[in-house]
Amino acid sequence: MKQDLIQYVEDNFVTTKEFPKFKAGDTITVSYRIVEGSKERIQQFQGVVLQIAGTGATKTFTIRKISGGVGVERIFPFATPLISDIVVNKHGVVRRSRIFYLRNLTGKKARIKEKRG
Description:
The structure is a single chain. By secondary structure, this protein is mainly beta. It contains one helix and five strands; from the N terminus they run αβββββ. Strands 4-3-2-1-5 form a five-stranded antiparallel sheet, with no helix packed on it. The chain is globular and about 50 Å long. The termini are far apart.
């Protein structure tokens, strides 16, 4: 009974936008709407997808980029209205669905091969 109610609410009331398919290892650009007081702006965050976690309304993805020599990670929920667009820049070739080992690599070792075709 409880599971049916949760499924009903997710199906009818939780709206998620359709985004392109991506997986761990892909390089994507997320356009995220930021509200500061009465002003709004769109900030783009480009990086490598480390993981996709959760299901349904709680599904999230983690992106990592290097900014000023420091690694920056950000977790985005799929079901937020603040994401205006996601663009897949490159499809990477990795063997795992969670590539946390990328955190310890620097320089050329941190590169991910690009999928051809």
